[in-house]
Design brief:
The chain has about 375 residues and is mostly helical. It has 2 domains: about 80 residues, no CATH class; about 280 residues, Hypothetical protein af1432 (Orthogonal Bundle), CATH 1.10.3210. It has 15 helices and 7 strands. It is globular. The termini are far apart. The protein binds fe (ii) ion (2 copies).
Length: about 375
């Protein structure tokens, strides 16, 4: 970010400037010839209409365009209607913005003011709003491909949170095709903030991809409660955010469907539906997204590994819809699974895959009649 007196500016790509409509933000250039000094000059006023010829002229004359930081929200919102740019370019800008807001949350360490939290949450909301614009019609596999095309950073929590936000939006859409914008926004916000409580945990522990000591694991397990407390302690009030819902996602995303999770051993429908969606998004991202420190599972294997957690860790019905949406022919390694205590929120050097019992050709949650084998009739009682 470049500083100029009271304002800061961020650079934007020529291909992502809104054309032929009222521009909602001012455009600037850096007119300084000194690398160490910057002088930002407005070259195009908002509320005017920029056309492609104007943009061409700018491209020939200037090296880089900038927007003032306090107009980032307007810039992000305009991305949804920019034509001719690839979604991956838009998603890269949205991701960079989301990272900036997540950084401001996580860099503050253990204490932070209402103001910082408020601003960061507002920024996260703006990012998710643009995310919804770009990916709302994406299938889960399309989200997966998009994630693969975006560059990754080596701070697990940022990339992971953004990916979980995108998957959660996509899963909700698969589950409920007529989901409204607000619901999609909440799914994205839940995903983006689900690990918020990690802000209170030593980064040495949260970024450790190796095997954690039992003590460290006990500390990590506190992050759902820490996150919920954080939002309780601060009076966050934003229109268009249902904080009760977000607090439930944060507090319940490590609850297991069969009641063996933490912190409160909730089970089944006691866990909010958005937290159950987030848990699936969380799991899938952890095993399919390439990181510098571990390899990933092919899609079919990932689905197979998750299928083995159905009914124990994850919601069977949501998973069925998830699986159908991914629509893979299951030719995966049917002999592998992940332990029940696998933590998708924690980076891993190696996925702790283990050999499993032979594959059972049915879903754990279906009763015998639904499984269709033998057409078992219920005995008359
Ligand atoms: Fe988590
Ligand atoms: Fe997570």
């Amino acid at each position: 970010m470049k500083e100029n007196k009271d304002y800061s500016y961020f650079s934007i790509s020529f291909g992502l400037v809104l054309l032929d409509k009222e521009l909602p933000y001012d455009l600037y250039i850096n007119s300084s010839t000194h690398a160490s000094r910057e002088k930002f000059v407005k070259i195009f006023k908002k509320e005017n209409i920029l056309n492609s010829e104007d943009l061409h002229t700018f491209k020939d004359k200037y090296y880089q365009l900038y927007v003032r930081e306090d107009e980032r929200e307007l810039y992000l919102k305009s991305l949804g209607v920019v034509e001719g740019a690839a979604d991956v370019e838009k998603a890269a800008v949205i991701k960079d913005s989301a990272i900036q807001y997540l950084e401001s949350l996580f860099d503050e360490g253990h204490e932070f003011s209402n103001e910082v939290l408020d601003e960061a949450i507002q920024g996260c909301r703006d990012s998710v709003e643009s995310m919804v614009d770009v990916i709302q019609d994406y299938s889960i596999l399309e989200v997966q491909n998009l994630i693969a095309d975006l560059s990754f950073h080596d701070f697990y929590t940022y990339d992971h949170s953004i990916n979980v936000a995108m998957y959660s939006i996509s899963i909700l859409k698969a589950l409920k095709p007529d989901a409204g914008r607000f619901e999609l926004l909440m799914a994205g916000m839940g995903g983006l903030l689900h690990d918020l409580g990690k802000v209170k945990i030593d980064t040495r522990i949260i970024n450790n991809p190796g095997k954690l000591s039992e003590d460290d694991f006990q500390v990590i397990k506190k992050h759902p409660e820490y996150g919920r407390e954080l939002l309780n302690e601060h009076q966050c009030s934003h229109d268009e955010i249902n904080f009760d819902l977000i607090k439930r996602v944060i507090g319940e995303h490590h609850e297991n469907f069969n009641g063996t999770g933490y912190p409160n051993r909730l089970k089944g429908k006691e866990i909010s539906v958005l937290a159950r969606i987030t848990a699936i998004a969380d799991f899938y991202d952890a095993i399919t997204t390439k990181r510098s420190y571990h390899e990933v599972l092919p899609t079919a294997d990932a689905i197979e590994v998750m299928a083995r957690s159905v009914g124990r860790k994850i919601d069977p019905k949501i998973f069925e819809i998830f699986r159908k949406n991914v629509n893979v022919v299951l030719e995966g390694k049917s002999h592998i699974e992940l332990p029940d205590d696998f933590d998708p929120c924690q980076p891993k050097n190696i996925l702790p895959l283990q050999k499993s019992a032979p594959k059972i050709q049915r879903s754990d949650f279906l009763d015998k009649e639904e499984q269709g084998f033998g057409k078992v009739k219920k005995k008359a009682s």
